[in-house]
Amino acid sequence: MFKSIFARFFTVYFVTTTLILLLLTTLISETLRSNDMNEKMSELKSVVADINLAFEQDSYSITGEAAYYDIIKEAAEKNDAVIWLSDTSMNIRTIVDGSGNITITNTPMNSELASIAQQVGQGNTISAVSTLENVFGTSVILVAAPLIIENKYAGAIFMYSELRELDKSLSAVFSQIFNCVLFSLAISIFVAFIFSRYFSRDIRKITTSANRLSGGDFSTRVYIKSQTEIGNLADTFNNMAGELERQEKLKTTFVADVSHELRTPMTSIQGFVQGIIDGAISKDDQETYLKTVLSEIKRLNSLIADLLEMSRLDSPELKLNIEHFDINELLRRSIINFEQAIESKKINVEIGFGDKPNMVLADPDKIAQVATNIIDNAVKFTPKGGKISINVKRSADKTNVIISDTGIGIPENELPFIFERFYKVDKARAEYKGTGLGLAIVKRIIEQHGEKISVDSKEGKGTKFTFTLPNKTTNKNVFASH
Ligand code: ATP
Ligand code: MG
Q: Which pairing describes strands 126-130 and 387-394: parallel, antiparallel, or unpaired?
């Protein structure tokens, strides 16, 4: 029963609300009761005073005339109280009940009452809630005062109201409070119930989607409009599901792309080798075809090397060997590796930095790979007689490396995708060999360094890549050691 958090929440809420309301009811009742008791007591006191005042006006005998009875009868009836009058010898002489019935008697007081009468005899007025079991048989509000007739102490006057009577009149008020409490309890429980249902419905939605996700359905999403923590949780869940879906798609397309890239050279290798074995390719042509096979195998090798590099860069264990090094020197060495291609295409290379070292803080091997991949593209996509410029610009904490060419450029709508794996602009342009992994590796490396790379290109005019590197720290000792 208490498995769901909302059943627990609901129970706790129910118990707490009930307790608070009960406490409140008791408190209100007690306050009302004690107010009523005080009121009744002062009422009785003033009636007793009034009776004494009335007796002062005229001389009455304690068992005397009718007028005397009228005064106490009226007082008893009006206040729904009982009045006893005693003489000075501790005897009860007159009793008037709440309905105004008068009994004339001569009953000696018992010791309990006599002790009160004694105090009264000394001139005290006593008012108390009293339970004199042997006298009244129940709890009463009692006022006892001296009875003064003709300015003389003539005995005691006891006036009392049963507490039961007071409670009777209060019980109507209590029942009204109780009804209100029940009503408000019912309303708050109803509201709590609706809210609980509402929240548990949202949580159930998230659980259902999480189950679908764990079952492999990455398209699942949770729709919760609320701006509460549950709404935030749903948003976070959706972001997570979105990212998982993206990763899953990447994985699928990656496998498809890799298979495709592998199949093309494999097919041609198989065809040529088969042709040689079958004798379909003449002995004279064999060397040419074997050279093609060799170049295809080389291409496969470099593809596999690139794939390995990609997976290494993705691995969480990847550690960069961060060092201080001269980026100018690294760029110079990188461009020398392309000397042959540059010369054969008669490309003019413009180096925009001098001999002075420009120290940066990065992994030199990885940055060499970045430079190589970008220069490789520049050389590959720049026609004969074109120009490649390499510039290094240093600001306070960053060094910008800018590699631009006057090559075929990249159409504007393709620019956002060129850093994606296997992405090649216009796959039909078969003369440009490549797998589309070069820039993906570049981007990964730059991001691993926490730096940025951007591209700027105009179709037919040329392309410019800019990436940033952190400058060497100002520690002079380290600087001197290089
Ligand atoms: P790989 O580098 O893996 O051998 P690739 O050069 O085709 O193959 P990337 O280096 O990732 O792949 O480049 C992606 C695509 O971006 C290229 O195919 C090309 O269409 C375009 N591109 C990149 N650099 C340039 C450039 N300097 N000029 C024109 N197009 C470029
Ligand atoms: Mg490339």
A: unpaired
